[in-house]
Design a protein that fits this description.
- It contains 10 helices and 25 strands.
- By secondary structure, it is of the alpha/beta class.
- It has one domain: 4-Layer Sandwich (Purple Acid Phosphatase, chain A, domain 2), CATH 3.60.21.10.
- The strands form 4 sheets. Strands 5-6-3-2-11-10-9-23-24-25-20-19 form a 12-stranded mixed beta sheet. Strands 12-13-14-15-21-16-22 form a 7-stranded mixed beta sheet, with helices on one face.
- The two termini are 37 Å apart.
- It binds 2-acetamido-2-deoxy-beta-D-glucopyranose (9 copies).
- The site of one 2-acetamido-2-deoxy-beta-D-glucopyranose has 2 residues, from loops.
- GO terms for molecular function: hydrolase activity.
- It comes from Tetrahymena thermophila (strain SB210).
- This is Ser/thr phosphatase family protein.
Length: 489
């Protein structure tokens, strides 16, 4: 395997005396146009300091490479002095002042890099006793080695530091050396009320999360628990590439054979019509480019990611009308994902793990499911996109397995031809790209340390043409439990 690695040293010089420039919460962030040679920012290294510490960060390379470019921009202030809450609950006054130091990287897209970060021992935090390295993933421009571009992406969402969430995080942290991912997509709702305890709750979470957020390039998605002050606190902490144009609410990037489209549907649901239109225009334009024949030949997989979802079936709270209403609320999004042949929509928000049959415009599409073993399946999809819910990171709202009677109700739908994988274990998922037509999706139980289920997903990346649906034309989709209780496997 080609390894164009450049070892670089990030030395953090606390040159401003009488300021607390202790480096905390390092994160390697990716977002808009990651790996696109024409973009002026391909990734961001961010970390927090208590004081402004302007000019505190400099990058030094112990092996110089003129193609590796970076610039330090002014610290972004995370200033809060307000009453915050989530949905009117647990209101508290937050006085919080911190700075995010931003180093924008522009990598040469022909190469991968290894960058090492080393803290200032004087003011080092424990995490800086270790050097972190990251390697920018293999890139789509390298067409000759295309089929070797078997990149692997970690998906995780809805997690805090309650016992199960911590256990999942610890498992992932302990295995960053053996369990290599090329990038990580965080699907929103980190720390559950990050602002509580004057912001310490969120920072404690990110501190525990730091081995991951520096091991893998992190595409961070805001969830509905991050919408305080119109997402401004989240945004100043996660200043993703492309921020100036889209305020982290939507962006897209390509890694290997996958074009990721990130959309914040919670923002879509609460914002004004002109912002909705702007987001839809952006999405249409992005998907039109990504799905044109020439582009798709090189980057065949299109995966949408985000926190909230279009197809939400909540068997545990029968009257969860919010969830049931998503299909209608987000129909314009559904129409675009369907029209341009998006393969999957990977989301969280619901605190469990599900895999749904391909849908387009709220209608079930053709697919073929073959059983390989008790927990491995081959899923060949036609048109439409598969929804994968990975909201089982472990948080304060526990996963509630359905009661026996509820299970029986659902079982009566078994005759219907739809697919419904439903797991209540705490963990994460990953996608491993195999080639132009095959990916593997694995759901992993990090508490019991076992693979829950594996899907070999096959797609010819067909778009579903035809008219956009209006809600009146929608049919209700039915669900089948295929693997009801993974805990028995
Ligand atoms: C670490 O910080 C201290 C205190 O600001 C400073 O005197 C020292 O030069 C720094 N060392 C390095 C290696 O950056
Ligand atoms: C080092 O950290 C301490 C406490 O966190 C702080 O008081 C001090 O000002 C810091 N020194 C520098 C040079 O940042
Ligand atoms: C890279 O960005 C440019 C400018 O936005 C765009 O025209 C081009 O299609 C992008 N290339 C890829 C591979 O996404
Ligand atoms: C971190 O990297 C530097 C430079 O390569 C090295 O001197 C130092 O010993 C490393 N520290 C650890 C804890 O590995
Ligand atoms: C919220 O932020 C968006 C940009 O993300 C902006 O367009 C909108 O006007 C803001 N809304 C309010 C109420 O400030
Ligand atoms: C984004 O805007 C800020 C503030 O206007 C500016 O300092 C920064 O350089 C801009 N970033 C990019 C990548 O254009
Ligand atoms: C759902 O709401 C309906 C109508 O309000 C009510 O009759 C039913 O008992 C509720 N079901 C559950 C499981 O709460
Ligand atoms: C943690 O996970 C275990 C095993 O699934 C479960 O029994 C327990 O209720 C969970 N605890 C919380 C607080 O969700
Ligand atoms: C893609 O991978 C699958 C599964 O390994 C294999 O059966 C298929 O032949 C491969 N297709 C191509 C075009 O390499």
């Amino acid at each position: 395997m080609n390894k164009y690695s450049v070892l670089a040293l990030l030395a953090l010089l606390a040159i401003v005396s009488a300021q607390n420039c202790k480096v905390t919460l390092p994160r390697l962030l990716i977002g808009d146009k990651y790996t696109n040679a024409t973009s002026d920012v391909t990734a961001v290294i961010a970390f927090d300091t208590i004081d402004e510490c302007k000019g505190v960060a400099t990058l030094n390379f112990n092996k110089g490479d003129p193609t590796f470019d970076f610039r330090v921009i002014d610290p972004v202030i995370q200033l809060v002095d307000a009453d915050l809450d989530h949905s009117g609950k647990q209101k508290e006054h937050v006085k919080y002042l911190k700075y995010t130091q931003i180093i924008q990287l522009k990598a040469d897209v022909e190469k991968s890099y290894t960058v090492q970060i080393q803290g200032n021992k004087t003011n080092a935090t424990s995490i800086f006793d270790t050097n972190y390295t990251f390697i920018l993933p293999k890139l789509p421009s390298d067409n000759a080695k295309y089929t070797q571009n078997q990149v692997k992406f970690l998906f995780l969402g809805d997690q805090d530091l309650t016992a199960n969430g911590t256990a999942v995080l610890n498992y992932l942290n302990a295995n960053t050396q053996t369990n290599k991912f090329d990038a990580m997509i965080y699907l929103g709702d980190y720390a559950y009320e990050f602002y509580q305890n004057n912001g310490k709750k969120g920072d404690d979470y990110l501190n525990t999360f730091a081995p991951l957020s520096f091991s893998y390039p992190l595409a961070m998605t805001p969830g509905n628990h991050e919408d305080n002050l119109n997402f401004t606190i989240f945004n100043s902490k996660f200043f993703l590439p492309g921020f100036n144009r889209t305020q982290n609410n939507y962006n897209s990037f390509t890694i290997g054979m996958v074009h990721f489209v990130h959309i914040n549907l919670h923002f879509f649901s609460i914002t004004k019509d002109d912002e909705k239109d702007k987001m839809l225009k952006w999405l249409k334009n992005d998907l039109a480019i990504a799905s044109n024949a020439g582009q798709r030949k090189n980057v065949p997989w299109i995966i949408a990611v985000g926190h909230k979802l279009n197809y939400c079936y909540d068997p545990y709270y029968a009257n969860n009308t919010e969830c049931i209403g998503y299909a209608q609320q987000f129909l314009p999004i559904d129409n675009l994902l369907s029209q341009y042949g998006v393969d999957m929509f990977i989301v969280a928000h619901q605190h469990y793990n599900q895999v749904m049959a391909p849908m387009a415009r709220n209608q079930l599409q053709d697919y073929k499911l073959t059983t390989v073993s008790s927990n491995e399946f081959t899923l060949q999809k036609g048109k439409g996109y598969i929804t994968i819910i990975q909201g089982n990171g472990g948080c304060v709202t526990p996963i509630i397995p359905p009661s026996k009677s509820r299970m029986l109700d659902l079982a009566s739908d078994l005759q219907k031809a739809n697919l419904f994988i439903d797991a209540f274990n705490y963990g994460y998922g990953y996608i491993q790209v195999i080639n132009q037509t095959n990916v593997e999706y694995v759901s992993y139980d990090a508490i019991n340390k076992k693979q829950l289920v594996k899907f070999n997903i096959k797609s010819q990346h067909q778009a579903s043409g035809g008219q956009s649906a209006t809600f009146g034309q929608l049919i209700t989709f039915s669900l089948v439990i295929l693997l009801a209780l993974f805990t028995t496997i």
